Structures are given as structure tokens and as C-alpha cells.
Amino acid sequence: MSELTAGKAVAKTTATVAAEAATAQKNEWRPISYWPFVIPAMIVVMAVIIFPWVYTIWMSLHEWKVGQAPTFVGFANYLRLPSDARFVESVGHTLVYTALSVALPLILGTLAAVIFNNKFPLRGFFRGLFILPMMATPVAIALVWTMMFHPQLGVLNYLLSLFGLPPSLWVFHPATAIPSLVLVETWQWTPLVMLIVLGGLSAIPTEPYESAQIDGATPWQTFRYISLPMIMPFLFIAAMIRMIDAVKSFDIIFAITQGGPGSASETINLYLYSVAFVYYDVGYASAIVVVFFALIVALAGALLHLRQRTHWNEAGGSA
Amino acid sequence: MRDFLNKLGLTFAFIVIVSPAVLFFLWMLSLSLKFEIDNASYPPVFIPERINWGNYAAVIESKRFMTYFFNTLIVTGSATLFALVIGVPAGYGIARMRARKSAIVILIARITPGLSYLIPLFLLFQWLGLLGTLWPQIIIHLVVTVPIVIWIMIGYFETTPMELEESAIIDGATRWQVFRHVALPIARSGIAVAFILSVIFSWNNFVFGIVLAGRETRTLPVAVYNMISFDQLSWGPLAAAALIVTLPVLLLTMFAQRQIVAGLTAGAVK
Questions:
Q1: How far is B190 from chain A (nearest CA, A)?
Q2: In total, how many domains does chain B have?
Q3: Which tens digit of pLDDT belongs to each residue from B160-201?
Q4: Are A133 and B21 an interchain contact pair (Cβ–Cβ within 8 Å)?
Q5: Residue B101 lies in a domain
Q6: Which residue of A has its CA nearest to B126?
Q7: If we measure between CA atoms, which residue out of A249, A255, A259, A257 comes closest to residue A87?
């Protein structure tokens, strides 16, 4: 199966290359002639993306507090990380926060997509309402969530009481701080998962569903054996995007808890903020940036690995 | 009868799934329109007997608020326009050269936390003596806006057919003329999508402002955040300020919902 796909891909690439070569020959338009379109953007990208990266790596090898002269210390900043309890703790918080903030929106977003996939009057209007959270200014909504989390005056504890549940301290207690923040993250980003999965669902042809209906399949069987395998690639993309965004989440956490209470919700990104802009220890902060980036790439790589092991390919899986 | 029950179930499912989004914004509106005494009452009052427009007046009349509003307008406007001017041709060039690999370099900006760009660029702005002006924020917002514009434009130009461009070339048009008169008009809707998403993500940005903005150069998200830390907690004006900050984005989302969905899913899936 995979060899066949690979063979097809090669054939396609060869055909594309041949076609391109023919076009280029016909018009004497080499790709190089498009450089003028790209050069201004390249300069900007170098200035705001590449330069900071090179500079960060250089800084990470130096002991440097703002206002002092940098001294070269090799990998000392990196070696400091494992014994920095606050950093180690923040890695744990980041992993928990990320795992929850990928899983919950993925489940709820898929459910929402299945519902939105039905034809329904005013569907576009409902979809518009549904995607509002992800476009709203994060700090502004964080502010309102903070009010809603208030243990005495907040509306959330009132809602709990309506269902006969005991009140919670939400973001004001170490044990519930991260789950409460994940609630906000889930509220905000479930719509993105829904949109991506909906894209996948709407691409499925109707025939399999028709034959499933004739065979008398239950809605769950239909979802499990027809929809789910077909939307696997889309679920994977959604998980990837969600993972990258959740791991570096900043606005919501910073505005609601500032990493607190104590350091109960301090993720790597928040700790990085403290080291860089509260203590102005830029050398050490740069080492954190590099390790943080490596962690994100490693998590993304792990997801990719998982995808290959489970054989979800573009034909819709091994099922 | 069964059909009716199905419809009913579906309606119910829709309401359940959409209500967390809708109720949140209604509650935000409710908080912003109440007197303090109603905001502090238990059980909470959803629709107040007396409406207090004073919260909005208090926010808008405070002198600095308008300064921050115009700061946000300038930063977002400049960062978006600049990103369009350089990003649209770049998307065209990359799409026509089929240089998808060079587009991956820009992906770094998607993966890296925005905060990490702040340390080196902060030092650079300090060295250039730009702190205290709006320039640092305009420049650093390009980290967000330029990649958005380039990704969306690559997607659009890759799907526009080459035939028209080829016939223009045969007629002797220069590359620039082809771009200006053939490719650009076709990609108009793509540019609109890139514009909208760039505006929204720049408008919403908080992390760059919290570090780079001084007292005079704050943007609205930073100003709202500072309201929590310094003012005594009074919910009405806070909620009103929060709603004013996010209102332009909410309206844009409602009006341009189709384009936003197209842009987000195209950018996400490719």
C-alpha cells in the first residue's frame, strides 16, 4: 500500500518536473526570475525571525544580566537548568497543561463537528457564533473569566450550586488552577478543532453512509467505522496545531493567574517571562528559549511518530 | 414524527454546543451594564432592573483610553499594511517558484513562542534608542503578521491557474506587469482573508506590548491588563473596557465569518 503510494508520488513528481521544465523552456522563465518578489520579505524575515534566533543562541552561551557586560560561559546556562527547581516544575506544569488542552478540545471539537455536519437552518449563523471565542482578544476574555472564577461573587460557583455541586476555588487554589485555565483554553479553542474536523467530514462522499444506513448501522458504528478513519488526518493536524499553541500559551495564564497561586500554574513560558523581564537575566533566559523550542519540536516529532505507527495515511487509515 | 424528534434533538444539540460561547459574551455584556451593587449581588443578576451606561462613559472619557485606542490602531494598521506590501509578492514568488521549502523557514515563527523574539529585539530596540516610540511594537508585530500573509497568499496563488499569466507573458508583459495586472486581481479575495486575519491577530496581541510599551505607547490589551493590576477591582468598568477592546474583532468575525473560516482552515490544513 505504502509502496504503491510512494510510486505514485514519484511518478507525479516526475510528471510535474517535466511539465515545469516544458513551461520554463517555452517562456524562458526560470524560477530565479521571481527572486525580486521574495527578497523584501526575506529581509524582513531575517530581521525579525532569523536574527533573533542567532542572537538568542549566542546569548545563551553567555552570562549576561542587562546593564552588565556579557561573559562567555559555554554551556553553563544549560547545565543550570536541571538543578533549577522552578524550571523543572514549570516543565511538568507545561506538559499537564498541554496534554489537557489538546485532549479536551479535540474530543469536544469532534463532537461539535459531527453536529455541525448536519444540514440545518441558520447553520452559518450558528457557526459564526461558535467561532467567536477564538477570535476574541485573549486578555479581555481572561479578565471576564477571572470575574467568573471569583469564589464568592463569580457566576461559575452559582452555576455549580444550581446543579447541587459544592463551590470551587477555581484559579485561587493550587490544585484547581491548571484545570481551570484549561477550561478557558478549551472554551476558546474547541472551535478551531471543530472547523478543521468539519473540513474533513464534508469531504467524505455520501455513498458509504448510504450503504451503512441500508445495512442498519447505528450512529456510533457509522461514526466509528466510516467517519473516524476518514477524518484521522484532520484530527492529526488539529492535534498538532493545538499542541503547538497550548505549549506556548501565555496571554490567558498571565492575565488570570500570573502563574499562581504561588507557582502552581507557572508554565515554561511564564517562567521565561520572569527570568527575562523581571530578573533581566538574558543569558539564562536565552538558554530556556532554546530548550523550550527543542521541547516543542520533540513533542511535534512524537506526534508525527505516533501517526506513522498507527498507519493513518491519506487514504483513510488501515481500517 | 420520528423526523420531528430528530430535528428537535438536533436543535437541542446545537443549543448545547453553541451556548458556552454565546452565554459568555452575554454575561460579559451584562457585567458591563450593571451598577456595582448588582455585580456584587448573590445570586447573580443576569438582566439588571436598572442599566448603567456610566461604565462605558467612564472608560471612554478617561483621557488615556483614546490614546491607547489610537496606539492600537497605528500598530495594527502599520503592521498589517507592511505585511501585505511585502507578503503578497513574496507569496506569489514562492508559489510560482514552488519553493515550499523556503516557506518552511517561516514556519519557525509559528512554532516559536512570541516571547522569545522579545529578548533579542528588546536589546536591539534599546540600542537603537527606539523604546518609548511605537516603532518597536510595529516592527515586532511583523513576526505575527508577515507569516500569516505569506502562508495564505502561497495557498491562493498556487490554486490560481497559470494559463492567463502564460498568455500575458507571450504577449510580452514583464513579470511585474503579470503580477500587477493578472495575478493580483484574481487573488483579491485571498488578500482580503490575509488582511482580516492579520488585523485580528495583531489587534489581539498582548505579549509584545506588555514588554515593549511604555506609559504613552500602550495598546488596548495592555491597557486593559493594567486596569486589573492598579485599579481597585470594580467589575462594571473592567467588563466595559474588555468589551470595547474585543468588540471590533467580534464585529469583524460576524461580518467576515466565511472568509475567516476559509483562511483559518486553509492555513491550518496546508
A1: 17
A2: 1
A3: 888 888 888 888 888 888 899 989 998 998 999 999 999 999
A4: yes
A5: yes
A6: A66
A7: A259
Please give the residue range of the domain that contains residue B225.
55-269
Which of A4-18, A118-132, A187-201, B160-174 has the highest mean predicted lDDT (pLDDT)? Answer: A187-201
What is residue B162's predicted lDDT score, i.e. its pLDDT?
82
Instruction: Please name the amino acid found at residue B264.
Output: L
Inter-chain touch B119–A59, beta carbons under 8 Å: yes
Closest CA to B269 of A314, A102, A110, A233: A233
CATH number at B71 reads: 1.10.3720.10
Could you tell me which residues come within 8 angstroms of residue A78 by beta carbon, excluding any fewer than 6 positions away? A60, A287, A290, A291
Residue A43: CB atoms within 10 A of its CB come to 11
Count of other CB atoms within 10 angstroms of residue B248: 18
Residues A35, B93: C-beta atoms closer than 8 Å: yes
In a domain, B50, yes or no: no
A257 and A182 Cβ atoms separated by less than 8 Å = no
Residue A273 forms contact with B (CB below 8 Å): yes
In this structure, how many other beta carbons lie within 10 angstroms of the beta carbon of residue B221?
30
Contacts of B260 in chain A (CB under 8 A): 131, 135
Nearest Cβ partner for B225 among A23, A139, A297: A139
Give the pLDDT confidence score for residue B3 in this predicted structure.
Answer: 78
Q: Does A138 touch chain B (CB under 8 A)?
A: yes
Query: What local confidence, expressed as pLDDT, does residue B268 receive?
Result: 56
Is B215 within a domain? yes
Three-state secondary structure call for residue A72: strand
Q: Check B110 against A244: CB less than 8 A apart.
A: yes
CB contact under 8 A, B260 and A255: no
**A296 contacts B111 by C-beta, under 8 angstroms:** yes
User: What are the residue ranges of helices labelled H in A73-223?
Assistant: 76-80, 85-116, 123-130, 132-135, 138-149, 155-162, 174-202, 207-214, 219-222
d(CA B195, CA B210): 24
Which residue of A23, A126, A269 is in closest CB contact with B14? A126
* pLDDT tens column, B216-262: 899 999 998 888 755 566 888 899 999 999 999 999 998 898 888 88
**Residue B23 within a domain:** no
Residue range A305-315: mean pLDDT, rounded:
66
A38 vs B90, B115, B170: nearest CB: B90
For B56-79, give the secondary structure using H, E and C.
Answer: HHHHHHCHHHHHHHHHHHHHHHHH
Name the band, by pLDDT with cuts 50, 70 and 90, for residue A83: very high
Q: Confirm or reject contact between A250 and chain B (CB < 8 A).
A: yes
Residue whose C-alpha cell is 482578544: A137
